[in-house]
Amino acid sequence: MAGNAPSMAADDAYVRVGVAAEWSRDAHFRDRNCSATAPPALFGCGPGRDGRALGARGDFGNGHALDVAVGRRFSPVLRGELLLTHRRGFDFDGQANFLNVAGPQPVGGSLRSTALFAAGYVDLAPIGRVQPFVGAGLGLVHNRVGRMRYGFPGLGANASTTVSGGSHTGFAWMAAAGVNIALDEDWSVDVAWRYADLGRVRSDHGDATIVRSSGSFDLDIAGTRARLRTHGLSLGLRRSF
Q1: Fewest Cβ atoms nearer than 10 Å: which of 118, 152, 160, 202?
Q2: What DSSP string describes 103-129?
Q3: What pLDDT shows up at residue 11?
Q4: Is the pLDDT of residue 4 over 90?
Q5: Residue 2: helix, strand or coil by DSSP?
Q6: What's the whole-number mean pLDDT along residues 36-55?
Q7: CA 206 to chain centre
Q8: Which residues of 149-159 are buried (b: 16+ CB within 10 A; e: fewer)?
Q9: What does each C-alpha distance from 66 to 17, 59, 85, 91, 232 come to in angstroms?
Q10: What is the pLDDT of residues 224-236, one digit of tens each?
Q11: With the CA atoms of 8, 13, 17 and 20 taken in that order, what torsion angle do they form, in degrees rounded to the nearest 10?
Q12: What average pLDDT does range 181-196 have in this prediction?
C-alpha cells in the first residue's frame, strides 16, 4: 500500500493555504489588578453574587481562521513550516456577576487575532495516498478586542457600562493531528484537528461609558484580561516543489 503514495524528496519545500472552522474554550474576564484605584478596577476583589470571583464568564463563540504557510521537509519523517493564521468572527458572549445587581448581566465584545507560528511535524507511515501526521508550534500572537458592553436590564432597559477595547501581543502555542491526502506528485490536501492557546486578550484602561435611567457619564476604568483558546477543523491545499 505504501508504495502507491507519491514520493517526496528530503529537500522538498511547499506552500499551503487553508481555512478552518474553530470554536473557543471558556474564557473569564477579570481585572488586571483587582485592587487598582487610579484608575479604579472594573470588578474589584472578592466573590461576586454567585460566590465565584468577580468577573465575566463565557466564551468567544465560533469563528473562522485563514492560514498561509511555507514549509520544508528535512527528512522523510520531519518537516517544519512558518504558519500565519488570522482569526475572525469570534465574539465574546458571557455573564458578569457584579454584586447588588439583580437579574442577568450580559457581556459582549468582538475579537480578532493574528498569530505567527514556527511549527514542526512528524509524518507517520503512509497508507496508500493518505499520510497521518502530528505537529506542534510556538509563536507570537496579536489579539485585539473591541469595546466591551456590560448590560444590566435589572437596573433599567438601557442600563449598561461600556469599557475600552484593547490589544495585546504575546506568546502562543498550537498542536495538530491530521492526514495529508496526495492528489498527485505536487498537490495534496491537509485535513487536521488543531488546538491553539492564543494567550491573553486585554481591554485597556480608559473611559467607560456608564448609562443608567438617571443619565449617562464617563469614568476612567482600569483594564481587564482573559485567555483565548480555540480548537477546530482545518482544511488546506498544499503545493510541493
Answers
A1: 118
A2: S--EEEEEEEEEEEEEEEEEE---BTT
A3: 52
A4: no
A5: helix
A6: 95
A7: 24
A8: bbbbeebeeeb
A9: 8, 21, 6, 17, 12
A10: 999 999 999 999 9
A11: 60
A12: 96
Cis peptide before 39, with omega less than 30 degrees from 0? yes
pLDDT at 9: 45
C-alpha cell at 209: 461609558
Of 18, 53, 50, 56, nearest in space to 145 by CA: 56
Of the candidate ranges 6-10, 42-46, 57-61, 172-176, the one whose mean pLDDT is the lowest:
6-10
Angle (nearest 5°) at CA 45 between 42 and 50? 90
Task: Report the distance separating Cα 102 and Cα 98, nearest Å.
Answer: 9
- pLDDT exceeds 60 at position 216: yes
Burial (CB count <10 Å: 0-12, 13-18, 19+), residue 99? exposed
Q: What 8-state DSSP symbol labels residue 37?
A: B
206: three-class secondary structure by DSSP: strand
What are the start-end ranges of the E strands in 25-145? 26-31, 56-59, 62-73, 78-96, 106-123, 130-145
Task: State the residue for C-alpha cell 459582549.
Answer: 108
Helix (H) or strand (E) holding 234: strand 224-240
Q: What mean pLDDT is predicted for residues 205-211?
A: 94
Burial class (CB in 10 A: 0-12, 13-18, 19+), 206: middle
Taking the C-alpha atoms of residue 211 and residue 162, their distance in angstroms, rounded to an integer, is: 9
Distances (CA, A) of 59 to 32, 88, 170, 195: 18, 14, 20, 15
